[in-house]
Amino acid sequence: MEQVDTSIVKPLRIVAWAEGISFLLILFVSMPLKYIWEKPELNQFTGYIHGVLFIVYVIVVWLAGDRLAWKGKTKALALAASIIPFGTFWADHSIFNKYK
Questions:
Q1: What is the pLDDT of residues 53-94, one digit of tens each?
Q2: Fewest C-beta in 10 Å: which of 5, 27, 33, 67?
Q3: Please, are residues 9 and 96 in contact by the beta-carbon 8 Å criterion?
Q4: Which domain holds residue 41?
């Protein structure tokens, strides 16, 4: 059996948590501030940070999928997790945690 390089797992898990937290901050803090209390400033900042983290997450998931020899379904689930609230936390627990 071929040995896989798991050195990407720790950065993947860190990025997954950061992306998940930024997504929840947008949904539950900055969006209500913007649309209920008409304070868009925080939403601009968190939106930018979340956008960068989302792109980094997609890249790291893609690289991890290649390095860890994931099947297409596993890679698709890990990528889809980034668009569902709490999804990256689920992916960390269900997919990434197996490689630590």
A1: 999 999 999 999 999 999 999 999 999 999 999 999 999 999
A2: 5
A3: yes
A4: 9-99
What separation in angstroms does the CA of 11 have from each of 1, 34, 92?
A: 25, 32, 11
Domain tally for the chain? Answer: 1
Q: Which residues contact 70 (CB under 8 A, 6 or more apart)?
A: 64, 78
User: Does the residue 1 lie in any domain?
Assistant: no
Q: Which residue bears the tokens 């596993």? A: 74
Using CA atoms, how far residue 94 sits from 11, 50, 77, in Å, is 16, 22, 10
Distance (Å, rounded) from C-alpha 38 to C-alpha 33?
6
- Structure pTM? 0.92
